[in-house]
From TrEMBL:
InterPro entries attached to this UniProt entry: HTH_LacI, LacI/GalR-like_sensor, Lambda_DNA-bd_dom_sf, Peripla_BP_I
Keywords tagged on the record: DNA-binding, Transcription, Transcription regulation
Superkingdom classification of source: Bacteria
GO molecular function ontology, one term from the record: DNA-binding transcription factor activity
Organism the protein comes from: Serratia ficaria
Name of this chain's protein: Lactose operon repressor
Residue ranges occupied by any HTH lacI-type domain in the UniProt entry: 6-60
């Protein structure tokens, strides 16, 4: 069996193109036509060709690799974004190097960017919450790096690709108001998160405009566990809440579980609306009504932006993708006899245990 490593020349022969074209696909895939690029990538695949990255770095080449600085990938939404970004990057011949950070501290971010720079990576998606001043500092201090921010305040003077929170958030509050809800519990994301703050402000504004000024708020950390704990706390203070607005589907999973434990039926006793519409949310029990953010689209759009930022000087922009309400089974009219029947159900359950 021939175990010789395929060379660039072999790839060129197999694809029927010049060696220079193969080298372009390796170093600047975005300047090669899609057809030729796919042809060359196919030949590399067939021959198991492995590019010599160290030689490319030594030759001073910038690698066709994007950086992704991300918050915890244990969270559903950032992991969906990472997966989509990687899939779309590969379609244009780029790899993705991931750096997952525990904190958004400026010094930590700067070291992560330095590490990318050392690997000759100069186009980076920043998929973590950053305050305006921090994002602007990173751009100012790293003029050689193209940075695309996914979670910064819209006022930040940086390249920003995000979601327009107001559409989906306003529609979710309006749905609950139309169904007749008046007692709301708000479960926001962490106060350190820009998007969590924007969603909360929008819920409150819309409720306030409808004459509902009094609502109780808890802050989770995006995990299902925090959804569970904070729901128990909210209902211990306000057992009469009939509608929960939750800042992420992952927290809503914990909310649903806590409500079950509190003997509340969804949606007859309490309606729940999440945020994200990750692919699993339609399989929650009951299927979750939620605000959809299109994670496939944001990954695809991030690749397009990084490519065009490479060919033009970097200017600040805000590209905001729509959010839409997806109505499923976790929302309904409040059942007037709901709390009474919950009590009856609890008593029955007790009697059965005797
Ligand atoms: C945002 C998600 O909506 C939220 O559920 C949580 O996972 C958060 O990310 C983590 O930072 S999406 C982001 C693009 C604002």
């Amino acid at each position: 069996m021939n175990k010789r490593q395929a060379t660039l020349e072999d790839v060129a022969k197999q694809a029927g193109v010049s060696q220079q074209t193969v080298s372009r696909v390796l170093n600047n895939p975005d300047i090669v036509s899609e057809r030729t690029r796919n042809n060359v990538l196919g030949a590399m695949n067939t021959l198991n060709y492995v590019p010599n990255r160290s030689a490319q770095i030594l030759a001073g080449k910038t690698l066709p690799t994007f950086g992704l600085l991300t918050t915890s990938l244990a969270l559903h939404a950032p992991s969906q974004i990472a997966s989509s970004f990687k899939r779309h990057a590969e379609l244009v011949g780029y790899q993705v190097a991931i750096s997952m950070l525990k904190t958004g501290r400026l010094s930590v971010l700067q070291s992560a960017l330095n590490e990318f720079r050392a690997q000759k990576i100069n186009s980076v998606v920043m998929s973590l919450p950053l305050e305006k001043a921090d994002a602007e500092t990173l751009v100012r201090d790293n003029p050689d790096m193209r940075q695309l921010f996914l979670d910064v305040p819209p006022a930040a003077e940086v390249c920003h690709l995000g979601f327009l929170h107001s559409d989906g958030t306003t529609s979710s509050v309006n749905l609950l108001l139309e169904l007749g809800h008046r007692k709301f519990g708000l479960l926001a994301g962490p106060e350190s998160s820009i998007s969590a703050r924007l969603r909360l402000a929008c819920w409150r504004d819309t409720l306030y405009q409808a004459g509902i000024a009094e609502t109780d708020t808890e802050y989770g950390d995006w995990s299902a566990n925090s959804g569970w704990v904070k729901t128990v706390e909210l209902f211990s203070r306000h057992p009469d809440i009939t509608a929960m607005l939750v800042a992420s589907d992952q927290m809503a999973l914990g909310v649903i579980s806590a409500l079950r434990q509190l003997n509340k039926r969804i949606p007859q006793d309490v309606s729940v609306i999440g945020y994200d519409d990750t692919p699993d949310s339609q399989y929650f029990h009951p299927a979750l009504t939620t605000v959809r953010q299109d994670f496939d689209l944001i990954g695809k759009r991030a690749v397009t932006h990084l490519l065009s930022m490479a060919s033009q000087p970097q200017e600040a922009f805000n590209d905001l993708l729509p959010t839409t309400l997806v109505i499923r089974q976790s929302t309904g009219k409040p059942d007037a006899a709901g709390s009474e029947s919950a009590l009856v159900r609890q008593l029955k359950a007790l009697v059965q245990q005797l």
